[in-house]
């Protein structure tokens, strides 16, 4: 047992705009962290090299003994080949068929567990945050896209050799708007931050969102979650309605999920939820309770994630620890 107390577990979260690595001891105390921009559009070869160098810097800057690293867990966007530890596709990064497990295993000579990033985030919330004690928890994380996950009786719900729960790519409307995937009318097309920002930019350009136009402008890259929240606070009613409509779409997806799985906890996470928690959680809850079958109306709660950026990192490390120990 004394030897195990010196073990190090590394969690890594690969996001569309940032990557974050944290080293943990056996008691889940953080030993150090390293954050960098993803620069995904530079390509997958450059991206995985950047992942490797970020972990190297984490180890070096915190004087960690690399021989004590028991495993690395890395959460990545998009569907994952679980058997090979390979990213199959990432619509919002433009990466396809990336052998991330092989690369990291060769570089750090330790077990590497690759999983979907929202799976990692929800597992972190299940183990340490908003979903502790749940029998079945479902996560919906709106951001650049909309990710989904499910932890059922302590285990991440996964397909046969592939990740699943791609909630963002389920169709929830007859609309023609699409996202990074060909199918129109999906939850991601209707409720992602990117979709909201696009409509908000139009409103700002037309003069219907004066605060947003004055403080941020119409550049999509500048209309982030905080900017949307500030515009609502300043009285931009059009922006508020856009967020409410997106939240109503998420609420309809929650109805579908409840009718399929009857989860006791729905966790909403990501920067947009953090910036507008009351508005988004309240609207999703109201929409779901209004439309779900009456027998399920009081059998679920909708909550905001608690761990922030650390959810995916800690969840990836915890899942790696579980899988390595099997």
Main sheet attributes: strand count, strand direction, barrel closure: 5 strands, mixed
Work out the helicity level.
Answer: 40-55%
| Rg computed from alpha carbons, rounded to a whole number of angstroms | 20 Å
Q: Assembly state here?
A: single chain
Distance between the termini: 17 Å
User: How many helices?
Assistant: 11
Strand content: 15-25%
Overall pLDDT level:
93
Helix-strand topology string: EEEHEEEEHEHEEEHHHHHEHHEH
Backbone structural class: alpha/beta
- Poorly predicted regions are none
Q: How many distinct beta strands? A: 13
Essential attributes:
326 residues
Give the SSE map.
Blueprint lengths: L7 E7 L3 E7 L5 E8 L6 H18 L7 E8 L3 E2 L4 E5 L4 E4 L1 H9 L3 E5 H12 L7 E7 L3 E7 L2 E2 L30 H5 L1 H14 L3 H6 L9 H9 L3 H25 L3 E4 L2 H5 L1 H15 L9 E4 L5 H16 L1
Summarize the model shown.
The chain is of the alpha/beta class and 326 residues long. The chain is 41% helix and 21% strand. Helix 5 runs antiparallel to helix 8 and helix 7 crosses helix 8.
């Amino acid at each position: 047992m004394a030897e195990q107390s010196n073990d190090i577990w590394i969690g890594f979260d690969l996001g569309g705009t940032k990557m974050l690595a944290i080293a943990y001891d056996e008691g889940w105390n953080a030993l150090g962290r390293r954050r960098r921009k993803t620069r995904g559009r530079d390509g997958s070869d450059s991206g995985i090299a950047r992942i490797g160098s970020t972990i190297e810097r984490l180890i070096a800057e915190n004087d960690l003994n690399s021989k004590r690293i028991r495993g690395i867990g890395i959460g990545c966007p998009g569907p994952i080949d679980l058997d090979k530890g390979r990213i199959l596709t990432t619509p919002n990064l433009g990466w396809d068929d990336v052998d991330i497990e092989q690369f990291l295993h060769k570089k750090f000579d330790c077990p590497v567990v690759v999983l979907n990033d929202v799976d990692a985030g929800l597992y972190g919330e299940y183990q340490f945050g908003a979903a502790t004690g749940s029998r079945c928890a479902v996560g919906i994380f709106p951001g650049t896209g909309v990710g989904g996950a499910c932890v059922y009786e302590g285990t991440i719900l996964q397909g046969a050799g592939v990740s699943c729960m791609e909630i963002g790519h389920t169709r929830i409307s007859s609309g023609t708007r699409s996202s990074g995937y060909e199918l129109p009318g999906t939850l991601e097309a209707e409720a992602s931050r990117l979709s909201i920002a696009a409509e908000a930019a139009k409103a700002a350009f037309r003069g219907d969102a004066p605060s947003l136009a004055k403080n941020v402008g119409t550049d999509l890259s500048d209309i982030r979650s905080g900017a949307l929240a500030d515009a609502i606070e300043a009285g931009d009613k059009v922006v508020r309605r856009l967020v409410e409509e997106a939240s109503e779409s998420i609420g309809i997806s929650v109805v579908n999920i409840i009718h399929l799985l009857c989860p006791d906890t729905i966790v909403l996470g990501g920067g947009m939820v953090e910036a507008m928690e009351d508005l988004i959680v309240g609207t999703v809850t109201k929409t779901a309770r209004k439309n779900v079958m009456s027998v399920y109306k009081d059998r679920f709660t909708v909550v905001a994630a608690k761990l922030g950026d650390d959810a995916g990192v800690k969840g990836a490390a915890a899942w790696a620890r579980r899988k390595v120990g099997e």
